Amino acid sequence: WRQPGIKRTKTVCTYCGVGCSFEMWTQDRKILKVQPTPDAPANGISTCIKGKFAWDFVNSEKRLTTPLIRENGQFREASWDEALDLVARRLMNVRDIHGPQSVGFIGSSKASNEEAYLTQKIARLIIGTNSVDNSSRYCQNPATKGLTRTVGYGGDAGTIKDIEQAEVVVLVGSNTAENHPVIASRIKSSQKLHGQKLVVFDPRKHEMAERANLFMRPNASTDLIWASALSRYMFDNDLADYEFLERWVNNIDEYRESLAPFTLDFAEQKTGIPKQQLIEAAELIGRAKSVCLLWAMGITQHSHGSDTSTALSNLLLVTGNYGKPGTGGYPMRGHNNVQGASDFGCLRNMYPGYEKVTDEDARKRWAKGWGVKPEQLSLEEGWGNFLMVQAAADDKLKAMYIIGEETAFSDANTHNVHSAFESLDFMVVQDIFLSRTAEFADVVLPACPSVEKDGTFVNTERRIQRFYQVLEPLGDSRPDWRILKDLAARMGHDWGYTHPSEIMAECASISPLFAGVSYERLEGWKSLLWPVAADGTDTPLLYTDGFPTDDGKASLFVLEWQEPLEAADDEYDFMLDNGRLLEHFQGSNQTGRSQGIWDQVPGSFVEVSPELAAERNIQDGTWVRITSRRDSHEFPALVTDRVAGKTLYLPIHFGKPGVNGLTGEHTDPVVHTPAYKETAVKLKVL
Ligand code: SF4
């Protein structure tokens, strides 16, 4: 590497929320290799196939390299001055005519913390709306709600090291080996090295299910029932941690009474899990010294994902599994910076650092920090992603600004999303590719991927890490923070930032959660886990001295089980599960442009169970038509016992309409996360 022209630069993976960091070796624009080092705080010397090999997209010929403006239905190239002038003028014009609530912003879970911060600052300060959101609405908001209802913070309770050292790990609705491969590898090592026990609840027999000490396949949308039945079992069998409960937890009696319906018999009948297995799981969890419970979209993407997430956190409280090493609740963050996009304010109801927009004191402090009058900041909560799209369809939202998100592919029932986008007066998309969403835009602004800029990301552990510029921006593309800063200046707010470190410094000076965060403290391989005190002390493990509530106590939250909003019936008699594959990511905009990855998995398929295959004479490669209440698509079948009975599984990465041509708009009523996993379909063999 000492050859002239070869450079090594620290960066952070742009894919999942594990937050692997490594050195990237480059020569000019050529990425020679990715090399992990023992200094990397989240991953050490581990990475997965995506972090190691899925970088071709950076030099793809399909990258956007110049701004585009739609004229007579076609895009034409434009200068930055022309494009930014047009965007500034049109957004202000829509706001002046229709009011601040007529403009909505979707920030990117792949952009940096500083870019998330600027996105919400433009929305709140310049436009005057809190309608700003990010893709956590589609995945982890229900988990965040479950945690904030019970223990206070919405982030993971501890670190990957805590997961490694737990006596028992419980995985619920999380295909960890494919979606968070490095965390899965830590669990596999802990199984071997210190006999860690693994309990898996999942409809799909994925790799971690095969490695589990106990694997249970609950019926669709019944997880709240087994979780509550396990909590009841703990109280009934003297396995509840009364010392912890009395010292740290409120609402014990009311919660315990609310568990009356959740008998083991009821749980067996509804979930389909044999009673004896539920007892085994309860005994393993109840008698362990330390339990980490990890969950993902198998829980959250349901019509009652917030309640089920709450039930999981209740179970951890009942068994005293918070605030000690090797314990806690861990919603697995999907995108590399979905945690940071929320932490730094791309949320409809929170300033950066999770301060409510409805809180007068928070408003005063943010207004002072930004040098404006408090009245300039709205006290009204805005719309989240899903509701923005609905509002556009209802002609209440007139303009949208979308940064690096594939809303036209990722939101549920994309048919409705597309017609909502077509009805907008003005739409801007800022992205590295002409994505499916950008095709609806009036102006497209070419942005840079993470390797062409400086910034910070937050991983699933709440760990803030720096990434450094590896390459020069391609063509005339620009870092998102610079585009946003230049746009703000054209709307009358010249903030004068010259580097992302100044944006972070401003946020740290206003937000107590990030008080001690600075680029100096994040230099090189250093990292900080929020909350970070002004003296730079960070918090790897939450709740060691109590909970962030008025009396320092957590709360058990009373729940009732409710039927899912969409279930199988006589006509639509299958449930369509869906999710990621190891090799790809989301709409495959990046992995699909990395040749080595595409060669491995070049297209879609639908998994069918061996029972169904025998009944309908389906073999690998047999084409089947899947029809939901929304639409119909055809796929080759893959016969596998990863799925059972009348459950099908479809990867989410492929096709123009993708799986969301089939999913519906039924959402969790608390946070409006679409119930992607509750999609009833019928199947026809072609
Ligand atoms: Fe690590 Fe996730 Fe990137 Fe794989 S995709 S290298 S596990 S951050």
TrEMBL record:
UniProt domain 4Fe-4S Mo/W bis-MGD-type: residue ranges: 6-62
Keyword Coiled coil listed: no
Cofactor: [4Fe-4S] cluster; Mo-bis(molybdopterin guanine dinucleotide)
One term under GO cellular component: oxidoreductase complex
Domain of life: Bacteria
GO MF annotation: an example: 2 iron, 2 sulfur cluster binding
Keywords noted in UniProt: 2Fe-2S, 4Fe-4S, Iron, Iron-sulfur, Metal-binding, Molybdenum, Oxidoreductase, Repeat
GO terms (BP aspect): formate metabolic process; respiratory electron transport chain
Membership in a protein family: Belongs to the complex I 75 kDa subunit family. In the C-terminal section; belongs to the prokaryotic molybdopterin-containing oxidoreductase family.
UniProt protein name: Formate dehydrogenase subunit alpha
Source species of the chain: Vreelandella populi
Lineage: Bacteria, Pseudomonadati, Pseudomonadota, Gammaproteobacteria, Oceanospirillales
First-to-last residue of the parent protein present: 255 to 940 of 988
